[in-house]
């Protein structure tokens, strides 16, 4: 039986003037977790709260135990120390947008797939006749 994955939402509130450094470290964080084989290949999502600039990193651990294993991994602990130098780790409930039923955030993933609008001059697809 396959172990269940676990999705996590990490919230980082950048320290003054450290927004770009935080974004860079979040990309590195993803790479290190992947190299340590602690997360799935599912792409991470990085969001920005417009209210205060808090960045949310959403990713998927390969198992419920993976988070505990990360705490024992020297490279990952060093990464978390770097993150702590440029941001405060805050609970999701501390992000103003999270208090709403439909929370809106700015997506920051540079490689996120682009949604292609339908061409206005393309004819509508016909339903097959029965």
Mean pLDDT: 88
State the name of the first-level CATH class. Alpha Beta
Number of DSSP-assigned strands: 5
Specify Rg, calculated over alpha carbons: 19 Å
Folded structure, characterized:
- The protein has helices at about 20-35, 65-70, 75-85, and strands at about 5-15, 45-50, 55-60, 85-90, 105.
- With about 130 residues, it is an alpha+beta fold.
- It has one domain (about 5-105): Alpha-Beta Plaits (2-Layer Sandwich).
- A hairpin with a 6-residue loop joins strand 2 (about 45-50) and strand 3 (about 55-60).
- Helix 1 runs antiparallel to helix 3.
- The radius of gyration is 19 Å and the shape is globular.
- The mean pLDDT is about 90.
Topology readout:
Elements: E1 6-14, H1 19-35, E2 45-48, E3 55-61, H2 66-72, H3 74-86, E4 87-90, E5 106-107
Antiparallel strand pairs: 1-3, 1-4, 2-3, 2-5
Task: List the defining traits of the structure above.
130 residues; alpha+beta; Alpha-Beta Plaits; five-stranded antiparallel sheet; 5 strands; globular
Care to give the gist of this entry?
Helix content is 28%, strand content 20%. The protein has three helices and five strands; from the N terminus they run βαββααββ.
């Amino acid at each position: 039986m396959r172990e269940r994955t676990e999705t996590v939402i990490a919230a980082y509130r950048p320290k003054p003037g450290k927004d770009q450094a935080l974004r860079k470290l979040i990309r590195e964080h993803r790479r290190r977790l992947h190299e340590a084989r602690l997360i799935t290949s599912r792409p991470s999502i990085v969001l920005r709260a417009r209210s205060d600039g808090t960045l949310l990193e959403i990713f998927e651990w390969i198992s419920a135990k993976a988070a505990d294993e990360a705490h024992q991994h020297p490279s990952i602990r060093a990464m978390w120390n770097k993150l702590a130098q440029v941001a405060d780790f805050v609970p999701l409930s501390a992000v103003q947008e999270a208090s709403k039923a439909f929370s809106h955030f700015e997506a920051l993933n540079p490689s996120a797939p682009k949604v292609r609008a339908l061409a206005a001059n393309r004819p509508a697809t016909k339903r097959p006749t029965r």
